[in-house]
Amino acid sequence: xxxxxxxxxxxxxxxxxxxxxxxxxxxxxxxxxxxxxxxxxxxxxxxxxxxxxxxxxxxxxxxxxxxxxxxxxxxxxxxxxxxxxxxxxxxxxxxxxxxxxxxxxxxxxxxxxxxxxxxxxxxxxxxxxxxxxxxxxxxxxxxxxxxxxxxxxxxxxxxxxxxxxxxxxxxxxxxxxxxxxxxxxxxxxxxxxxxxxxxxxxxxxxxxxxxxxxxxxxxxxxxxxxxxxxxxxxxxxxxxxxxxxxxxxxxxxxxxxxxxxxxxxxxxxxxxxxxxxxx
Amino acid sequence: xxxxxxxxxxxxxxxxxxxxxxxxxxxxxxxxxxxxxxxxxxxxxxxxxxxxxxxxxxxxxxxxxxxxxxxxxxxxxxxxxxxxxxxxxxxxxxxxxxxxxxxxxxxxxxxxxxxxxxxxxxxxxxxxxxxxxxxxxxxxxxxxxxxxxxxxxxxxxxxxxxxxxxxxxxxxxxxxxxxxxxxxxxxxxxxxxxxxxxxxxxxxxxxxxxxxxxxxxxxxxxxxxxxxxxxxxxxxxxxxxxxxxxxxxxxxxxxxxxxxxxxxxxxxxxxxxxxxxxx
Lengths: 279, 279
Description:
The structure is a homodimer. Chain A has a nine-stranded mixed β-sheet with strand order 1-2-3-5-4-6-7-8-9, with helices on both faces. The first copy, chain A, is globular. The first copy, chain A, is built from nine helices and nine strands. By secondary structure, chain A is an alpha/beta fold. The interface between A and B is medium-sized, with 24 and 24 residues.
């Protein structure tokens, strides 16, 4: 793990790291915010998964999360969104391959060697962070935006032992039924669609049967988001939550679009949501 | 004036504009944040001048200013830092020419045709903004970072009829006596150094004689700023303020560097500083 740069911010410290990651076979970057409270003991920790075209830096520079994180003593981890490097296969376009790992473990060639962001986030980076920072392992949450909202929801639903709270900004909730999902899952996982359910938040939440005792999920969605009807369809997730009695707060915001000006507006609410659940 | 894009943020609106600017002979970009209160009448307004290498977008995406601006009803204007376009002369390097207009009116060839950022900010953009947005013209302030802190201080000191409040993050206060200033003023204004005093905050404040009745100036400076001793030297401005009884709050912050993580940490304090003076 190599420290690339470090910056004081709101009394805490933002650090940019890179490390050689086995699961994805390349150097990976991530950032860590340690609040002032981390000097005195273990802290609750939230992972933020970014969306299509993003790197670890979009959250760090644009989300405006660090003031409230410092007040509430939250560690924030922001990983990259795909494997990187000249040796990693790529494709033209912005909705698949580099910058678009979709937080899955690919099974299809030529993607399966490197595009294993699911294992990277849930195992390799998870353990690396536990080993190197004052993270309270019983108080870890996860959130994300768009493709990263999909990542956060699916990872949470499959790993409630590791993540205790979840929220999302404008998430892809039903990739089995949207063009971004069809393209990504078709190429990463193959054309047998029954395998896609393992990476679909709507499908995964239905597996629970009765989730009435589980922590509330918070989702914010802008109503001027150009991807709302074609790709995001939060009503599908709302329906799935009702069926299994999963508590969901889905807030629809007039006038807000898909970008970081929307995210930064509601960031503090998400940090409070996690902070309250994580205790 | 052409609207390029618009985003809702914290209940207000961020708009990206471009316009054909006469003073600098090119298309110029700027952003405007209108708080919710702007729907009901004129609002106090603050200009933010960015530093070397920046555009209008650094403040807009990274400074984290819009939450408090929305709460306090402040319009925020973020211009670019130099003329732009293929027909505008440039030089290699990042501390002169494009991205480095230094908020002066150049007198030397080949810079004098386009590099007139002083007139652009204080006259052309100032009037354009007054004509098109609900700005209370008796409640306008200005602030900035590094080269933009130099711009804010010098523009304020020469135009107290137009700007009623000023503050700066890690400003260049004495360009007559630092390498960035020597290079920029030498090329833009010429080698006769007595002409440089017109763009030097330390020199300009001394002209006042007695500034004891003037509004307080706020400056924040990180003590881990790599440019502190070689370029910024806030103690020179502190000394000049004492001599003319200018009220100055100069805060030195241990561990903070020169970037937007530093700026965003103290942004709210600056907005409050302006908001209180502007009333």
